[in-house]
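Page 42, continued from yesterday. The earlier attempt failed because a stray header line got pasted into the input along with the sequence. Redoing it now with the clean sequence only.
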Amino acid sequence: MIWLLWTSTFAPPRPGGPTTAIELAVATLALVAVPVAAGIAILRHHLFEIDVIIRKTLVYASLVAVLAALYVTVIGLLGRLLQSATGQSGALAVTVSTLVVAGAFQPVRGRIQRAVDRRFYRRTLDSAEALQAFAGRMRDQVDLDSLQAEVLAAVQATVQPYHASLWLRPAPARLDHGTAAGIPAAVRNQ
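This time it went through. Structure tokens are written below.
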């Protein structure tokens, strides 16, 4: 509605006369330019987290299509089987196909979600896998130098910075047990 008002404000037709091709082109361009510019801004600057909306749209549109095809197929097959076996088809075929589709919902949704994530969000998926692998290797690592190399390799694989470095704080000096509480050993032993 706002775009229509904007177009009528900036590209009004001449009163009383026919509109020319130039006026019509300007009006059309003005009408199309605003939503196109908004779409470009949303995609370029990740406004409204549109990638989440796109991902969910792809997953659930695919899910609906697959489950609808499964439902129609199961109804058709069961209907023919029941028709040949009992001479009737109908309520039983619909009930069984509904149960099959309901049982298939979560596994099919999970597979479609993984396929969409692999196709469109490969970098995020790779980062998560790299962090899981790193966490598994961390449990077995005790050498500080190899641990430092592992940390830098994991950061490079997940974040992909231009440069990465790891600064370690030097180990604190070991305290003498006699002065651990701030009391000199000579005083403490008296």
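Notes: The CA atoms of residues 3 and 33 lie 9 Å apart.
Reminder to self: strip header lines before submitting.
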